[in-house]
């Protein structure tokens, strides 16, 4: 770049900066705007803290529910196995190879445990959603 061109560009930029005179705002306006922004930040912060508290309580309730349903399913597994034993025996003697393989004790036990796990998972999820919804409504002061 030529020195003359660089000097002209520098003068032009200096002229732009020299001609720029932003309007000065009143100190009270600035402080009011700053306080409004700080209040908005504080409002958001308190809402996030409340949401975290709600989520922790909902997760705790879901964990307790999942544990209770899992323990109940474990304790009721012998009863469930005995209840479906006649059905499994009837399927096993039907003569079909596919039915006989599905009626094997390992398959039946696996299906029972999968059903117990799905029940515990569904109960936990529903407890979480219900608890979170009710706690949010309570925090917002909404009555039914």
How is the quaternary structure best described? single chain
Q: How many strands in all?
A: 0
- SSE order in H/E notation? HHHH
Rounded to the nearest angstrom, the distance between the terminal CA atoms is 75 Å
| Silhouette | elongated
Poorly predicted residue ranges: none
Number of helices: 4
DSSP strand content: under 5%
Please summarize the sheet with the most strands: none
Mean pLDDT: 85
If you compute it from the alpha carbons, what radius of gyration comes out, rounded to the nearest whole angstrom?
35 Å
- Percent helix: over 70%
Overall SS class: mainly alpha
Please supply descriptive tags for the structure shown above.
87% helix, mainly alpha, 144 residues, 0% strand, elongated
Question: How would you characterize this protein structure?
Answer:
- The longest helix has 66 residues, at 27-92.
- This protein is mainly α and 144 residues long.
- The protein has helices at residues 3-19, 27-92, 97-102, 105-140.
- The termini are far apart.
């Amino acid at each position: 770049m030529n020195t003359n061109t660089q000097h002209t560009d520098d003068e032009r930029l200096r002229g732009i900066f020299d001609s720029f005179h932003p309007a000065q705002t009143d100190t009270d306006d600035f402080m009011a705007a700053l306080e409004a922004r700080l209040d908005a930040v504080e409002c958001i912060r308190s809402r996030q803290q409340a949401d975290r508290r709600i989520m922790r309580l909902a997760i705790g309730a879901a964990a307790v529910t999942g544990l209770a349903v899992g323990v109940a399913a474990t304790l009721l597994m012998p009863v469930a196995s005995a209840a479906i034993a006649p059905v499994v025996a009837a399927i096993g003697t039907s003569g079909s190879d596919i039915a006989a393989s599905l009626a094997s004790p390992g398959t039946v036990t696996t299906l029972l445990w999968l059903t117990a796990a799905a029940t515990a998972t569904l109960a936990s999820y529903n407890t979480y959603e219900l608890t979170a919804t009710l706690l949010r409504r309570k925090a917002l002061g909404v009555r039914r």
